[in-house]
Structures are given as C-alpha cells and as structure tokens.
Amino acid sequence: MKKRIATVSLAGCFGCHMSLLDIDERLLDLLQQVEFDRTPLNDLKRFTRHCDIGLVEGGCCNEENVYTLQEFRRNCDVLIAVGQCAVMGGLPVMRNAIMHSEDPLRECLETAYLNSDKIYNPSNRIPSDEALPLLLDKVYTLADVVKVDYQIPGCPPSGETLWNILEALLAGRPVELTYEQLRYD
Amino acid sequence: MSDSFKFEIDGVEVLARRGQSIMQAADEAGIYIPRLCDVEGLEPQGSCRVCVVKQNGRVVSACTQPVIEGSIVENESEEILGYRRDLVRMLYHEGNHLCPICEASGRCELQAMGYRLGITQATKYPYLQPVRPVDASHPDIVLDTNRCILCGRCIRASRDIDKKHVFEYVGRGIRKRVGVNGYNLADTDIALSDRAIDLATCPVGCIIQKGRGFFAPIGERQFDKRPITLGILPVKERSEQ
Ligand code: SF4
Ligand code: SF4
Ligand code: SF4
Ligand code: FES
Predict the structure, then answer these.
(1) Do B150 and B156 contact (CB within 8 A), yes or no?
(2) pTM higher than the cut 0.90
(3) A64, A177, B7, B203: which sits with the fewest CB atoms below 10 Å from its CB?
(4) CB contact under 8 A, B98 and A94
C-alpha cells in the first residue's frame, strides 16, 4: 500500500514547501510511492485518513498553530519538523529574545499597531476579530509542544536533503546526509 | 633532539617536544583536534572544552594540556565525539543563533563544528533565548553579543596583539558576557586594522565589519564544501575570502 503523507506550514514562510517542490521530476517518483493526504499542495484542509508521515514547517506562534500541530501528531505515525522554524523557531523566534518586559505580548502588539509613527491605523485598535487566532505569549518550537520524531534543519533544507531523507524513510533505511546536505541556513 | 618523545593519538604514533600541548603536537603531525576558543597566534585559554580528549584515560582540554611522554590520547572516539556534540549544542542553545540571517553563516566555526559533528540540532537542551545587547555605535564595527560564545579570542587579540584591551569579560556564571572598555564601541580606540576585528578572530558572527556582510555567495563560503579542519584557519586565507 502507498504510504500517506500530510504536510502543513505553521509559523513558516512556505519556503520549506517550495524546497519540497525543488525535487523537480522526482516528485513523480515520490507519487509512485506515496499518496498526499492533507497538504497545501492539493489544498486538502482536513485529514481524510490516518497518515504515515507528517511534515511540519514553521513553529507555533498562535493558538491555531498549536491546534493544527496537535492534530498532526494525532494523525501521523512519524512527525518530522522540517526547517529551522520548526526546529528552533526560526526568524519568528526573534520576538522571544526582544520581549522580556512585564507584559511582552501587549508591548509587541502595541508596537505593531499603535505606537509607531509608521502606522496608519485610524481606529487605533489592536485587531481582535474572532476569526484571528490569538498570538501565543512567545514562539514555540514543535518539540516544545508535541513529541517530534525527526528534525531536518536548514532554511530551507534543500530539495536534495528532503529527497534523500524521504527516500530513506520510505525504504526503511537509516538516513545518511552528505556534508553539503546538513545546513542550518 | 633529546627533548622529543613519542605518544599516541587514536593509535597513531606522534612525535612531541617537551612543553608542547597535545594540540600543538597534533597540529604538527597533521591530526585535527576540533577547537573553538583556541586559534593560531593567540595564547590558549582552555575555556570552550570542544578540544576535549582523553590522555591516559583522563578527560583534558588538548589546547592547554601538556603531552605526557608515552601517553595514549583518544581524540575521535564515540565518547569524545558525544562530549563535543553536547558542548556545541549547549553553545547553540545558550545564545540566539539565527543562522539564516547571520552574516557569519557559512564561515562560522560554531556552525561548521555542528556540521562536522553531524548535529541536527536535537532539542535535548532548552533554548535559553537570552536578552543580549547589540552595539552598533562604531562607524565600522558592530558587536552583536547574541551570537557570542565567550571564547575570549577578541579579548586576547586586543590585549596581546593590538595592546589595546578593548574587550573584557564582565559578570559571572550564566551572566558572563563580553563587554567593551568604554561606554560603547565608539568610545574605544578600536580600529578595523586591529587583530581583534580580523575575520579570523571571532569564530562566530559576533564581531561584524559594517558593509562587509554576506561577501561570499552561498555555495562558495568557507565551510560550504569543506568541513572545518586543519589548514582552514590561517588568518590570511580567511580574511581574503
Ligand atoms: S525554515 Fe526558512 S524556509 Fe522554512 S519556513 Fe522557516 S523561514 Fe521559511
Ligand atoms: S554565529 Fe554561527 S551559529 Fe551563530 S547564528 Fe551566526 S552562523 Fe549561526
Ligand atoms: S565576541 Fe567573538 S571573539 Fe569575542 S568572545 Fe564573543 S565569540 Fe569570542
Ligand atoms: S580549544 Fe581547547 S578549550 Fe577551547
């Protein structure tokens, strides 16, 4: 039976997904071996079945990210953190290191929406529509929130790296990255 | 050569002279012992412990430990590699290392050490995400201590070679950091021509020359194709890259 893969981008930039597309014509080889369940690549928004592999790009910066990540954990046998954002927070995590006041989240939102002279915001309000997920107090890595089975560093990991890892995983053999395939940037 | 004697590194016989450190003897024999706080031309200070080896079964830092005649040194055993991985991981987790936006990425020794040791950034340790200052007051130089690994190379270069004492450790324990001898960098007599500012001095992206970031394209940076090893550190070669 074909393995089922699900993918998602949480607090990421979709660069890691672009990198997956960078495996070019090998995507066809991949489709011989796997079937994509929920993923932005086919625009399925919900899981249709339990999956073998979940690839998650981006860390958690809002409550929706946490909810989605937990759903992925429940629905995937092997959960893989893909890219620097998923592994250690990536660029969004900069907010953790600059916000160490009494009320960091408020300070962040006020700087973004109220207190800067570069902002046009006539209502002078911080967006708070029900449809908007609430920001978390700080940015969390995937492993802060759920159990993660593997981590692939890189921003993004190259198509070669992703292909190499997926191929090994599908074939059930250990991954061996070449020197050029392990990157933190 | 009556003062020279033999010892062994990972089963290879190596010749050493009396008074040499394990690192010096290994370097001369062409055997690479990983290192971060030690660099050619500066006094070793033995603080990062990445050069950890076992000499006659005792864990020591190779850059400061004199060779014992006839001793057996373990450099690349799984146990030693494990220690080094943990040390490098802790350095990563202790500061704010955002490699994707770092000017030193690709020529950074901490990152290169991670690659060499095959670290895929496991999350055994928490990310501390400390608040650390950036000093961009100087017209030519930035000090971004978010990436500082406290190796003290800038301190020794400024003190021993430039004779300026621009940098110094301040604080203790987890609060220890590198400070400058003045209100800020602009308040010191630091200059681009100082050894402390040379690209080969700071192993990470902490001391930055303004207007010189990202000078080598991805794929052609110092450690993009070659792992960090002997012969890759000479100051000249790195500065011209
Ligand atoms: S790791 Fe890099 S490429 Fe991937 S989501 Fe984060 S910022 Fe984008
Ligand atoms: S100093 Fe090195 S390890 Fe730290 S962010 Fe820069 S490249 Fe990465
Ligand atoms: S600024 Fe650079 S050279 Fe100085 S202690 Fe920090 S990491 Fe080492
Ligand atoms: S290189 Fe020996 S302790 Fe740092």
Answers:
(1) no
(2) yes
(3) A64
(4) yes
In single-letter form, the type of residue at position B41 comes to G
Whether residue B229 is contained in a domain is answered as no
Which residues line the pocket of ligand 2, CB cutoff 6 A? A 184; B 97-99, 102, 104-105, 108, 110-111, 147, 204-205
User: Which protein residue has the closest C-alpha to ligand 3 atom 4?
Assistant: B154
**In a shared domain, residues B71 and B89:** no
Same domain, residue pair B72 and B90: no
Residue B44, domain CATH: 3.10.20.740
Same domain membership, residue B103 and residue B24: no
Segment (H or E) for A19: helix A15-21
Average pLDDT of the segment spanning B15-31: 95
- Is B122 found in the same domain as B65? no
Paired sense of beta strands B72-74 and B52-55, if any: antiparallel
ipTM given for this complex:
0.90
B233, part of any domain: no
Low-confidence ranges of chain A (pLDDT < 70): 99-100
**Domains, chain A, ordered by start:** 3-93+135-181 (3.40.50.700)
Check CB contact under 8 Å for B98 and A87: no
B91 and B125 Cβ atoms separated by less than 8 Å: no
- Cα separation, B38 vs B49, whole angstroms: 10
Question: Alpha-carbon distance B123 to B32, whole Å?
Answer: 28
The SS3 of residue B52 is: strand
Mean pLDDT of B120-147: 89
For the segment B204-218, the average pLDDT, to the nearest whole number, is: 92
A54 lines ligand 1 (CB under 6 A): no
B65-88 residue pLDDT tens:
999 999 999 999 999 999 999 999
- Looking at residue B195, which CATH number applies to its domain? 3.30.70.20
Indicate the residue of B106, B121, B132 with minimum beta-carbon distance to A88: B121
Whether residue A161 lies within 8 A of chain B, CB to CB, comes out as no
> Is residue B125 very low, low, confident or very high in pLDDT (cuts 50, 70, 90)?
confident
Q: Which ligand is nearest to the CA of B46?
A: 4
Cβ-based contacts of A89 with chain B (< 8 Å): 127
3-state secondary structure of A100: coil
Structure confidence by residue, pLDDT tens digits, A119-159: 899 999 999 899 999 999 899 999 999 999 999 999 999 99
Total domains in the fold of chain B: 2
CB contact under 8 A, A96 and B129: yes
Range of the domain at B15: 4-76
Asked if the peptide bond before residue A156 counts as cis, ω within 30 degrees of 0, the response is yes
